[in-house]
Structures are given as structure tokens and as C-alpha cells.
Amino acid sequence: MKKLASIGFLSLAMTIPVTHALAVDEHFMGDAAVVDGYDVVAYHTVGMPMKGSADYTATYQGVTWQFASAENLAMFEADPGAYAPAYGGWCAAGASKGKKVPTKADLWAIVDGQLYLNSSPKAHNKLFLAKTEEVIRKGETNWKQIFATPSGEL
User: Among 8, 76, 103, 133, which lies 20 to 30 A Cα-Cα from 86?
Assistant: First the structure.
């Protein structure tokens, strides 16, 4: 059933036209490694979150990124904007509501090549997956104001 839902979502996601949040416009989370040290390239290449290693790191936009392999590190360094998550790694559902909300690495989706993370099963399943196009559209609109405000909320 889970596989079937994923296939259905991927089919839907491929038909949704979106404008991606530009990585250069984002402020990535935390003083430690981004996305709690998970390898953002692995979401794209192996289709699941994988913990990165302190042996394979890059600095991009002033923060540390960790990777599971030298190959993933090289892919990121060649095109970091292709792999960096939307909304600076903050919750996509939260961005659609005008808030910066920390995320969980296992609540994710890739839509039109862009990695989106979410904060809770409810935000991921009942908001992001249920209303993907709307959440992304609202998140894109809100993000420019969210990252510019000190509290991270509109």
C-alpha cells in the first residue's frame, strides 16, 4: 500500500509546475551540519535519507553539509543548488503557513527535482502530500518574507 501511495504521489508530482525556491536566497538551518547531518544528495540518488559522515563535508552558504560518500560530496560540490532542500531545510508545510519549523529527515518528498522536508507526519501527509501544489505555491510566496524576519514568522 505504501509503495502504491508513493507511485501515485510521484505521478502527481511530475505534473505539477512549480517555481523552485532558489538556494542562493535561502538561509540554511543550524550551526551544526544541515538537515541534522543527512546526505541531501542521497534523497535524489538512492531515494531515502542516509546519514552523512564527518569524513565527507562541504561548506555552502556558510554552513556544513555532510555526505555518505565521496561521490555524493562531488555531486553536491558540482551543483549545490540542485540538491539543497527548499526553504533552507525548514518545513515546507510550515513555510506555506508563514513559519520556520524544524524538520525531520524521514519526512520528505522530491517534486520536480526539488527536495522538500517536513516537520511532522501530519504536516507531511495531511498537508504537503494532500495539497502539494498549494503548499509549494504558498511556501514560495511566503519564503521571501519568512527568511527576512528575525523570528522567522510572518
Answer: 8
Mind listing the pLDDT tens digit for each residue in 55-100?
999 999 888 999 999 999 999 999 999 999 999 899 999 999 999 9
Same domain, 24 and 93: yes
What pLDDT score was predicted for residue 31? 52
Residue 111 lies in domain:
1-28+84-154
CB atoms within 10 A of CB 14: 9
Which residues, including other chains, have CB under 8 Å from residue 89's CB and lie 6 or more apart? Answer: 26, 28, 29, 34, 35, 103, 117
Count: domains in the chain: 2
Per the CB < 8 A criterion, the answer to whether 123 and 148 are in contact is no
DSSP string, 18-36: --PPPGGG-----SSSGGG
